[in-house]
Amino acid sequence: MVVPRLVPVGTRACLVEVEDGPAAASLADWARRTGISAEEIVPAATTVLFDGVDLPGLEAALAGWTRGAVSEPGPAVTVPVTYDGPDLAAVAQHWRCTVEDVVRVHTSLELTAVFSGFAPGFSYLSGLPAERAVPRLATPRARVARGSVALADTWCGIYPSASPGGWLVIGSTDAVLWDADRDPPALLAPGTRVRFEEAG
């Protein structure tokens, strides 16, 4: 396990660097459960931001953290996908398998929403094995359609609205990722367990 590295941000905030998204989720969960005093605890891809925190106290507390699973799994959501993305064949080539195998693997995984970013409703989903990591596009697209299901590195995400993007698009869904009138507005809030199924 990579030893967390603390990077002070001013006098009352700190970024704690960890090895990956699941480690960030684990640390954030542990910090909340153990009652570390902070105004905000925000996990990201390889960091956790502690805002409004006593830095020496945080450093001492982190000595007691051991990476593990989150204490209480979040709600489960199943997302139907039409596997028709423009990069589906490229992912199959990168994985050295067939398009059908890509669909089989993607629908066999349980992913977890670790953090949100980029756009309202866009959740970074962790759980793609390291050997399935894929590169981003060399040149991002000027427009990726709303509902596009895409991969980048070991992350999976769904574009909640049309926007530029450089992830490899393998399919599409009609699921509404962000609805300001819904509670919570994000369909895939951090902690949500996500499975994909092939749309009928």
From TrEMBL:
Claim: ATP-binding is one of the keywords in the record: yes
Q: Name one GO molecular function term.
A: hydrolase activity
* Keywords assigned by UniProt, alphabetized: ATP-binding, Hydrolase, Nucleotide-binding
Q: Where is the Carboxyltransferase domain?
A: 4-188
Q: By its UniProt entry, which InterPro entries does this protein fall under?
A: CT_C_D, Cyclophilin-like_dom_sf, PxpB
Q: Does the keyword Hydrolase apply?
A: yes
Among Pfam families, the record links this protein to: CT_C_D
Name of protein: Allophanate hydrolase subunit 1
Organism expressing this protein natively: Nocardioides hwasunensis
